[in-house]
Write a structure and sequence with these properties.
49% of the residues lie in helices and 0% in strands. With 126 residues, the protein is mostly helical. The chain is built from four helices and no strands. The chain is elongated. It binds zinc ion. Zinc ion binds next to helix 4.
Length: 126
């Protein structure tokens, strides 16, 4: 008995689909993948933000050194995903992202701190 054409076609289509997806990801640069993700993130955040911003008072989840921070420190290396809410510089009024070795500061303020111009980041935390 001849194997049905339908089965063969479906198999072929499935293989091709998989190939297309793999090739699309392969040919995309890391930049593109990151951009794709951060676009989705900022879109969803914009939606959530509109609702949240109506409430006065401090932003939620912003207290340094509280439970969530301790938790994430306890289990490192599990999350390899792109950071959505990158922590900001600890210096008051500075909105830049902090950088990994910056002790809570952005590049500029970290340099200012190492030069002794400002206090340690922990001095500004409440
Ligand atoms: Zn800064």
């Amino acid at each position: 008995m001849v194997k049905s054409n339908l089965e063969a076609n479906i198999k072929e289509a499935a293989d091709q689909f998989a190939l297309v997806v793999v090739n699309a990801v392969k040919s995309a640069t890391l930049q593109e993948l990151i951009a794709l993700q951060s676009e989705a993130v900022s879109a969803s955040r914009a939606k959530a933000g509109r609702r949240l911003r109506k409430k006065p008072g401090p932003k939620p989840g912003r207290k340094p050194g509280h439970k969530a921070a301790v938790k994430s420190a306890l289990k490192p290396a599990k999350k390899k995903r792109i950071v959505k809410n990158y922590p900001k510089c600890a210096y008051p009024g500075c909105n830049k992202n902090r950088f990994p070795r910056g002790k809570g500061y952005c590049g500029d303020h970290w340099r200012a701190w190492t030069a002794g111009k400002i206090k340690a980041a922990s001095a500004y935390k409440k």
